[in-house]
Amino acid sequence: MGISITRREFGRGSLILAAAASMPGLAKAKDTALTIGVAAPFTTLDPHEQSNSPNNATSRHIFDSLINRGGKAENNPQLATNWNNTDDTHWEFVLRKNVKFHDGSDFTAKDVVASLLRARDKPSQSFASYTRNIKQVTAKDPHTVVVETTVPDPMILNSLSRIRIISAKYAKADVSEFDSGKAAVGTGPFKYKSYMPGDRLVVTRNEDYFAGPAHWSLVTLRILPDNGARLANLLSGDADLIENLPAQGIDRVKGSSKFDIIRGQSTRLVFLGMDIERDKTPDITAKDGSPLDKNPLKDERVRRAMLMSINRKAIVDRVMEGNGTVAHQFVAEGYAGHSDDVEPVKYDPEQAKKLLDEAGWKDGFRLTLHGPSGRYVDDSQVLQAVGQFLARIGIETKVNVMPWAVYSEKYNDKLYGVYLASWGINTGEVSNPALALVAKRDSKAGTGRYNAGGVDDPRLNALIKEATRTLDEKKRTPLLEEVSEITFNNLYLLPMHYENVVMGAKKTIKYEPRGDKYTLAYEVKPA
Amino acid sequence: MFASIVRRLIQALFVIVAMTIIVFIGVNVIGNPVDILINPDANQAERARLIAHLGLDKPLWDQYFVFVTGVLHGNFGNSFVYSRPALDVILERLPATIELAVSALVIAIVIGIPLGMYAGLRPRSPISRLIMTGSIFGFSLPTFWVGLMFILIFAVQLGWLPSNGRGQTAELFGVQWSFLTLDGLRHLLLPALNLALFKTSLVLRLTRAGVQEILPQEYIKFARAKGLREGRIVRVHVLKNLLIPVVTVIGVEFGSLIAFSVVTESIFAWPGVGKLIIDSIQMLDRPIVVAYLMMMVVLFVCLNFIVDVLYTLLDPRVRIGAEG
């Protein structure tokens, strides 16, 4: 890392340059700096090593993919200009011409082949969920690539939108070479300048970006996981935009003339999962602590009563300070698989009591709610609130939260009767969460990995299977809609809310938050 | 002296072995790093491949054996999270922490010793009382709160100093340092003061106590009777005798400054090892945790040794390794 220029100094320099640029005859793209406070740490610049949202969001600054994933999960052209499937397992991509890497070399089909195969074959296997169906990648000519899949894969475009294209000459480079900048050479909107792991990444504008140069000539992504530090960065003017504006800062930012709150809805669904499979389930007893002879959660009326008793609107408005939106199914309106026939369950504690009574649980029972702390937005406070709502209809509830490192393994091993969980639906459609959360658990087929409640509905299984091999969107969407209807009209999961994206920004900045929560400097515009 | 060093090295070795075993078992009990690292969409086969890639498919004793063999070859293993050698990741961050800790220590000594001596020599003056009351605040106010207040006042309200980060750095001996540039110093000031607050109070109180203990001693009276100037008495006879306990405490406290600077580092987003280690514990990144703790054990052993050597320089009666 060389001597880095701080934003303040840069700002000073930019004034002079801006003055120069305003003189006639010196018209040039303006020098502007942008500093973003990132909440979740990215860990490497090697775009194929570790797949998680902070890493994948960061790599988009330097690298492009074949497909550009839009903020509402739509597939737009990026390095591929158009594509079509020649048969069920062959996809042909026509590549963009005259695109250059940051080092000046030409972008061609061999870079695509090298990148896709590298992502597939890396020992860390972190991108396997995107590459598992890729059988072969071949360059038909310098500007056409054919991707062959092992099975018909309707999600291949989504998968390819996750895999960044690197220069073929760095296909053998290791993580250190990317982190040091030597191999961090992409075609993306920004070029590597310096990187200090755990601290910051500094990039400069790629003036020759094919989609037009970015507004910002110098972008700093600062890693600031501490809420107080991130907020202070915004308030003191060091950062222009911060992710996850902490709840305690909302009032300050709202009352200020200099800052704005930027809100948007994410595709992360938070739900209560419950054991609907076993006759005896852990943590559920009669009120005197004696074991029950049956599992009340198997009764759909009990689950409905539980959901009815929870005032989710109050939770998102008060407990989460507006950082959530009440959810009724996997995805919100506008995403593939959203169904109008899913009946929203309204807050109605009286009706909830009646339902419990009808189901034979007039006296209620006792349960323990399990959940992580610090993993989802206000997770432990949300659980406390849920516990109190359940207590009001006679379900005596104890709340047990634990660190994610402890919880992550255990909730999935069916150790809990009722648990708080979440799924970030980055594909923006229903097959992805359905496959993981409500398909029958089958380790060979890889379905139901997080189906900790033991959901096993034959119709649902058949629909999901059919949807995962149907390429035609017109046939696929109705299948997904029915998946949503079966899951949520039977309340196999109790939907709680979608987490909102809440950012703090200077008033001089405009940004449209994305469903996948990525913060992309290229999409940040001046107000 | 040589025998004493050998004895210490053996002791340190035992501590390191015990510590690594505890960390291995401890991390294993908390949870499985694979569950944290893995992409939630991964299937069973992909999960198995990741487990094998990280070497977690072997039984725990076998993993430990692989680790020990690696350490003997100078390899502490690859970080699960950063996918790079654990030692590299730590060494990259260590200068930032050392810089912060040394700055805090210097502040503590430069402020603590003179003020402590003043308060000890003139215990009844109003200024001494003010100093002593101030030191109570230094002791009792929690570091994180003071840090937040510093940021609120100096960065947010007044805008004099940057709120956090390391600022501009310059290279010396192949390492990046903040204190070499003006911007870096501005960034360093608040966190160093924050970290120094407690230590300053500690040094101040130790110094004052030492002065009051030394002043009634026979040799001070004798020096006065001999007609030595007050300045010389304070400089030579009081200060030198006083430094023995102060050096001990500073030596041990320097280790704790490095090892426990995590609060200050988090609040000021200072990219040091303290922050790294907390993140690593949360991510169950065992190689980093083990390598870091090993370094800390070695550091504490070295510091204690340096303190002992300093004793002999300050007090010729003390001999390293002397029995009894």
TrEMBL record, chain A:
<feature type="domain" description="Solute-binding protein family 5">
    <location>
        <begin position="76"/>
        <end position="440"/>
    </location>
</feature>
<dbReference type="GO" id="GO:1904680">
    <property type="term" value="F:peptide transmembrane transporter activity"/>
</dbReference>
<dbReference type="GO" id="GO:0015833">
    <property type="term" value="P:peptide transport"/>
</dbReference>
<dbReference type="GO" id="GO:0030288">
    <property type="term" value="C:outer membrane-bounded periplasmic space"/>
</dbReference>
<keyword id="KW-0813">Transport</keyword>
<dbReference type="InterPro" id="IPR006311">
    <property type="entry name" value="TAT_signal"/>
</dbReference>
<keyword id="KW-0732">Signal</keyword>
<dbReference type="InterPro" id="IPR030678">
    <property type="entry name" value="Peptide/Ni-bd"/>
</dbReference>
<protein>
    <submittedName>
        <fullName>ABC transporter substrate-binding protein</fullName>
    </submittedName>
</protein>
<dbReference type="Pfam" id="PF00496">
    <property type="entry name" value="SBP_bac_5"/>
</dbReference>
<dbReference type="GO" id="GO:0043190">
    <property type="term" value="C:ATP-binding cassette (ABC) transporter complex"/>
</dbReference>
<dbReference type="InterPro" id="IPR039424">
    <property type="entry name" value="SBP_5"/>
</dbReference>
<comment type="similarity">
    <text>Belongs to the bacterial solute-binding protein 5 family.</text>
</comment>
<dbReference type="InterPro" id="IPR000914">
    <property type="entry name" value="SBP_5_dom"/>
</dbReference>
TrEMBL record, chain B:
<dbReference type="Pfam" id="PF19300">
    <property type="entry name" value="BPD_transp_1_N"/>
</dbReference>
<keyword id="KW-1133">Transmembrane helix</keyword>
<dbReference type="GO" id="GO:0055085">
    <property type="term" value="P:transmembrane transport"/>
</dbReference>
<protein>
    <submittedName>
        <fullName>ABC transporter permease</fullName>
    </submittedName>
</protein>
<dbReference type="InterPro" id="IPR045621">
    <property type="entry name" value="BPD_transp_1_N"/>
</dbReference>
<feature type="domain" description="ABC transmembrane type-1">
    <location>
        <begin position="94"/>
        <end position="307"/>
    </location>
</feature>
<comment type="similarity">
    <text>Belongs to the binding-protein-dependent transport system permease family.</text>
</comment>
<feature type="transmembrane region" description="Helical">
    <location>
        <begin position="130"/>
        <end position="156"/>
    </location>
</feature>
<feature type="transmembrane region" description="Helical">
    <location>
        <begin position="100"/>
        <end position="118"/>
    </location>
</feature>
<feature type="transmembrane region" description="Helical">
    <location>
        <begin position="12"/>
        <end position="31"/>
    </location>
</feature>
<dbReference type="InterPro" id="IPR035906">
    <property type="entry name" value="MetI-like_sf"/>
</dbReference>
<feature type="transmembrane region" description="Helical">
    <location>
        <begin position="290"/>
        <end position="314"/>
    </location>
</feature>
<keyword id="KW-0472">Membrane</keyword>
<dbReference type="GO" id="GO:0005886">
    <property type="term" value="C:plasma membrane"/>
</dbReference>
<keyword id="KW-0812">Transmembrane</keyword>
<feature type="transmembrane region" description="Helical">
    <location>
        <begin position="242"/>
        <end position="270"/>
    </location>
</feature>
<keyword id="KW-1003">Cell membrane</keyword>
<dbReference type="InterPro" id="IPR000515">
    <property type="entry name" value="MetI-like"/>
</dbReference>
<dbReference type="Pfam" id="PF00528">
    <property type="entry name" value="BPD_transp_1"/>
</dbReference>
<keyword id="KW-0813">Transport</keyword>
